[in-house]
Amino acid sequence: MLLRIQVGEAINARAIFSATLLVLFLSLDYFATDFFSRGNVAAEGNAISALWWQLAGPLRHLDIIIEIGGAFVLAFIIRQRSEFLTLWWLNGLAFGHLMGFLSWLPYGILDLFYRITPNDQVLTIALSGTGVLLGLPLAFLQIALARRKLNLGRRAL
């Protein structure tokens, strides 16, 4: 019974929105990586992803499920302390994967990152860090809108 109550409190529209962004952007990033690398694991700049691809081989697509599951478990654990941190965690991961997806597009969207980073590992850190920074204002906005809605609801009573 206690677990059921905690799960119900942890899942709300804000968390569902952030989780949906994560699933969408992670999937885009993953399939863009798979498509644009044409199976060449050396084209992947993220060392952990490249190692996973080598180890998992044709089962590498399970990474989407594993990563989403791990992110959701950690989000649930973080939610026990702070909804804001949970939203920042999910949004940061989502935007990090959006940056990863954009890095594969051939339109020069991220040329700035390519100019300032000396190698793929630094580029991976720069893209992930940018994702975390982009997730922060969205988490603030989500919390601010939730508080505003709560205040409007109190006024109606």
Concise structural overview:
By secondary structure, this protein is mainly α. The chain is built from seven helices and no strands.
Could you outline the blueprint of secondary structure elements for this entry?
Layout: H1 2-10, H2 13-37, H3 47-56, H4 62-79, H5 83-104, H6 111-116, H7 120-156
Helix pairs in contact: 2-5, 4-5, 5-7
Question: What would you call the structural class?
Answer: mainly alpha
Helix proportion range: over 70%
Q: Which sheet architecture does the biggest sheet show?
A: none
By oligomeric state, this entry counts as single chain
Order of H and E elements: HHHHHHH
Task: Give the strand content.
Answer: under 5%
Could you explain the architecture of this structure?
By secondary structure, this protein is mainly alpha-helical. The chain has one domain. It has helices at 2-10, 13-37, 47-56, 62-79, 83-104, 111-116, 120-156. The longest helix is centred in the C-terminal third of the chain and has 37 residues, at 120-156. It starts with a helix and ends with a helix.
